[in-house]
Amino acid sequence: MSITSKFLPLHLSFPNPNPKFPFPTPTPRPLSHPKPLTIRCAKKRQRTGNLRYPSEKKKLKSKQKTQIDEADKFEGFWRLYKLGVPVHRDPGKDFLGVSDALLKQIAKALKFPAASMLPPEAFSVVRKSFDARKFLKEPKFVYTVDMDVNKLLDLEPCTWDFIFELEPKVGEIEHLPHERVSGDVTSIIQNYRRIYDGTVPIKDGNNQHSEPHKHPTTKKPRVVVVGSGPSGLFASLVLAEFGADVTLLERGQAVEQRGRDIGALVVRKILQLESNFCFGEGGAGTWSDGKLVTRIGRNSNSVLSVMKTLVTFGAPENILFDGKPHLGTDRLVPLLRNFRQHLQRLGVDIRFGTRVDDLLVENGNVVGVEVSDSRSNLKFNSQKLGCDAAVLAVGHSARDIYQMLLSHDTILVPKEFAVGLRIEHPQELINGIQYAELAAEVRSGRGRIPVADYKVGKYISGDDADEHCDSGPVKRSCYSFCMCPGGQVVLTTTNTSELCINGMSFSRRASKWANAALVVTVSSKDFESLNFHGPVAGVEFQREFERRAATMGGGNFQVPVQTVTDFLENKLSGASIPPSSYRLGVKAASLHELFPSYITEALQSSILTFDNEVFF
């Protein structure tokens, strides 16, 4: 591993605050109050792809093997998967059309002898990704393509016999009786209401979202949404489109003022406690890497509807097709401005700089919230807002909200998360390791192939590290997370006495640095070992190490760092530490002493494995 790689401290959690408000069914009926102080989480989704158990895969394969009627083969669409085009034959990462090289792969899948006879108009790209794994003979772009049977037969009747021979095959060929068309969230709701309520959306030229719908004569439910991250924004959008009276509360500032506050932090080290890399319009993800990655089915209609909504508000259309869709902070800022303006046209009352201090509860029901100006630590200017329901979309940094919920005897269930360090390398190093001689084609994000990244993981048993638990060996996962190619390390502290960091990048990923989190899972047993107990023990666990990191850095937002080789050897790095993308200053420190030994040893054990997977 290159000695120019280094570690920086990081805390990482995986919250699950995903409350839902049960909206009325199409048949008008009185609004029912939510159950008293209940935090509702999303239902567990059905496993897909590699997450399926072997028995589930076998059952699915048996279903797929069922032959379809011959007549049905000539209706609808066929979806062709895993069509690999060698990198030297592909126009490049930004091309999403059907090239001659792709037609050859389509012809091969159809067993059609003449690719030049296939009309490109009959095919459309659903997904495109880049595969440069080392066991391949050569890197390639991998496509998923939909074939319009009727259009293909109209343009090239000679393909009839070859379509007749097609049979579904798991992971390679799938028959779709109908084209999978998914609109954006707003269009879906408008269509729903047009069908069930008899309402018709008001259009203005090409903008079908320009005017709000008229809700039926029933009383509008008043809903307060707390937090303007992705969950809060989409909750507000759905509720407003269905006609609710929505108030969106955000403790931070709009992206324009938030950008100025972040600039003051980076340049003059002035931290605004309520407007920073964590708090503000768009949530923590606004000034982050802007990845749009999911494990719930990348081509599913639900995911595509969210993607298309982002495109409606200004995201580039390639996020609908990219294997690893990514926006970048520079694109997120105007997108969020458009999102906000649309919500305001729908009648959403958006209040920035407004912190929720308490819930108003009567007879076991939430009837409102108490708010105050977040720019002041004093609560003399508090105000009460009544509501029928409250959606808490606060994110993991709003730790005061969890304490407030506990004061109301709300049942909170702690969950496992991960802690660790952030590792940084020169991006050219990662490009060279992953792409070899193709590395020159990256061209700082403007070339034919994407900026190189990596993803690694290891399962750690108690035998691999000196575990502290008396009940037996502890099994952990150690993995890379939030890898930011062509990015930079930024400060995500919300308290001057604590220190934590994250990675971010812009759309082109043109920075000369790459960074990723390297984390180890921890559980309630780990919290208890440091005498932290109760529902928010994990939060106190985080804070403990954030305070230690701040002390190691020497204050003033300096980050303690250590070269990877020194971290493995448990020794302090010398004064001549490599440069970093982190702009507020770094200080050589013994990061191997930051965490308990079992976390440090798990990280060290994993690094040696990662060294073989990525660097050799």
UniProtKB/TrEMBL annotation:
InterPro entries per record: DHPH_N (IPR039648), FAD-binding_protein (IPR028348), FAD-depend_C (IPR049516), FAD/NAD-bd_sf (IPR036188)
Region (Disordered): 201-221
All copies of domain Pyridine nucleotide-disulphide oxidoreductase N-terminal, residue ranges: 222-280
SUPFAM superfamilies in the cross-refs: FAD/NAD(P)-binding domain (SSF51905)
Domain FAD-dependent protein C-terminal: 416-613
The protein's name in its UniProt record: FAD/NAD(P)-binding oxidoreductase family protein
PANTHER family the UniProt entry points to: FAD/NAD(P)-BINDING OXIDOREDUCTASE, FAD_NAD(P)-BINDING OXIDOREDUCTASE FAMILY PROTEIN
Lineage per the UniProt record: Eukaryota, Viridiplantae, Streptophyta, Embryophyta, Tracheophyta
Gene3D superfamilies: 3.30.70.2700, FAD/NAD(P)-binding domain (3.50.50.60)
